[in-house]
Amino acid sequence: MKIKRDKNICMVLAVVLSLSILSACNSGGADISSSSSPDSIQEPGSMNASVAVSSLPDEPEKPAEPENTEQQESPVIPDGPPVVYMTSDVSPAGLIAVYEALGREAAGSVAVKINTGEPGAKYFLSPDLIKDFVQTVDGTIVECNTMSGFNGRRSSTAMHYQVAQDHGYTAIAPVLILDEEGDLTIPVTNGTHLTENTIGAHFADFDFHVVLSHFKGKDATGFGGAITNMSMGYASAKGKELIHDVDKSSSPAFLEAMAEVAKSVADYAGENILYINVMNNLSVNCDCRSNPAASTMADIGILASTDPIALDKACVDLVYAAPDGQDLIRHIESRDSMRVLEHSVEIGFGSLEYELVSIDA
After folding, report:
1. Positive or negative torsion for Cα 266, 269, 272, 278
2. What is the pLDDT of residues 189-240, one digit of tens each?
3. What's the chain's Rg over C-alpha atoms?
4. Does residue 280 lie within any of the structural domains?
5. Which of 76, 86, 292, 313 is the most buried if burial means most Cβ atoms within 10 Å?
6. In a domain, 268, yes or no
7. If DSSP codes are grouped into helix, strand and coil, which group holds residue 210?
8. Is the CB of residue 347 less than 8 Å from the CB of residue 6?
9. Are 4 and 42 in contact (CB under 8 A)?
């Protein structure tokens, strides 16, 4: 896909440069400057993201009580794009801080959806990084098995638990394979390829879901973030096969099917879900690879939103704005990756516009 230049990328680059300065100087007083990506790299202008840079807003004043009248006006719904909060602090404290900035509490029984990583993988989310957050929300780490025939060790529930133990996750929190005792079928609304999605049956055991994703490259989809973690990640082994049956290649139809099943998960969870992407160890390969390519990018930060489309789009824009993002950009463009985000919006799921808010002091 040919991707046109987007002037708003400069705003995202301003955040990258600002956060880098803040990290280096440990000060909030540096000026923000902007520039464009190298001419050899095309930018995702077809998405037309609206990006604003600001600090955390003060608590708004409470509106005055309405006068008692026979007919009151309907409440005003605030305008504006969804907010994506960001910190350059890739640390346990940074992860908790960006979660708290969302203002949406993970309450009740909480599932924290991650990718446990294939044996031999190097870049899956470190237990040391996520431990404090998972324990703060009293979460259970959850995953689903890979589909049968996948060249890995996580298609068997017993082996998947062993991988979770070997990678250090069982030492920091309870771990549950959601489809170990069967499937749950949920509807897909507005889909053009699918009418239902099959996820792990234990999904319904939880009151709240945190989709905690490692943003990186991915073989079939170009990039992996919140949407892949919601679609392929929550799909049971059977559900993964249903998605692949739409088209077994990296095609628009395959990407559109992923968008549709991700929407079904969000619809099922309602307001009881939030999304966090960690942009570190940015390899062009997925954590499902046992021997991923080395990362050629510096870590960028941790981002969070209540809109997974806005969140993934902000991460893609940050890759394009990074001075060392060429390898991952080429990989993204080779897979026509933006189609998954475009189709999401077409079926009424999420926004490609967003406000990027740095929480760094």
Report:
1. negative
2. 999 999 999 999 999 999 999 999 999 999 889 999 999 999 999 999 899 9
3. 20
4. yes
5. 86
6. yes
7. strand
8. no
9. yes
